[in-house]
Amino acid sequence: MISRRSFVALQHRNYRLLWIGLFVSFSGSMMQNAALLWHVSLLVPPERKGLALGMVGLVRVLPIMVFSMISGVVADAWDRRKLMLFTQIAATVVATALAVLTFRGLTQVWPLYTLAALGSAVGAFDLPARGALVPTLVPREHLPNAISLNTIMFQTASVAGPSLGGLMIASSGVGWVYVANAISFGFVIVALLMMRDVPGHPKSETGSRDDVSWHAAMEGLRFVFRSPLIRSTMLLDFFATFFSSATALLPIFAQDVLQVGAKGYGWLYAAPAIGAMATSAALVPLVDRLERRGPTLLWAVAGYGLATVVFGFSRTFWLTFACLMLTGATDTVSMVIRNVVRQLETPDRLRGRMMGVNMVFFQGGPQLGELEAGAGGELARRAVLRDQRRDWLPARDRLGRRDDAGAQTLSAS
Fold this sequence. Notes:
Layout: H1 13-43, H2 49-77, H3 80-103, H4 110-133, H5 143-171, H6 174-194, H7 214-225, H8 228-244, H9 250-257, H10 261-283, H11 293-313, H12 317-345, H13 351-362, H14 364-412
């Protein structure tokens, strides 16, 4: 049963402003993520789709690998609200550039890869700042509720974004999706400007703020890997998503396997978020009382893997949709548990660095998993073509022998 206490974190004005702004912004970002994959699939030959889509994951993960440590240090050394203002403006510029190139008639795929990498670099600085800012906007006792509400907000946006994106792609084209995303960042910018009395720089034990330095980066890295709970949840996150991520292949499933077009693709892309949203709503009143978090986390990861396996064998839209919903539901359970553990176990002055290291695991896993899925799909396609060629050649040889025999008979007669 959901009560008013289930939304207690929203009583705090600064958190409420950020929550609303991020909901709109995440909806736009999810629209753009879906549109980008669809756009790539339209610009490459059919025989290169799998690898080209997998490359989106690679170009997104490389900036995360490069900037994860420094971005976490920056989030702990600078004013987190001002850092978010900078990243939101930069993200607006990237989305606007995508729209301009698209309206000018983009015919090559490399500009999409370049801008996807730039967007990922901006996100590498935004996520630690955002993740470290949220716990300063609510009291510690309301932090689990805030994390659960963030999950609901993110998953609701993940449903609304791709669904609207699919409709917009089908009716207006991908360019307008990029425009919508550029506008959505303005809501976060306004929310950040409207905040009052936001804590500034986090302080160290000595009362001074940390500098942007190699020593500060190594301090965050040592903290993460010396904390068994944080370290184990990060490793579990990476390996589960690396071997089970298939989002990059959804355009191929929608176009070639299920043949459901852009609208069907939008719903398939949103399916994990639909399952996640329903699960998040159920978890909100339970997260404070959830016991046996370890076994619950392991069961959730196992369910995620099983749903992905069935998804790979499915050839019907509704079974594929149900499997993707289940991946979202199980991933949400594990995500809420992981985030609560990490935030409660991390001091405020190290939160940015913890989020920076965590970003490599929870974003690197899915993005590298998309590359692995794309490469695997390309290898499978080539294997099928080889088998078809092998079956065709003997048939051609047999036909040739029959033609030769017929020619010899006619000559003899």
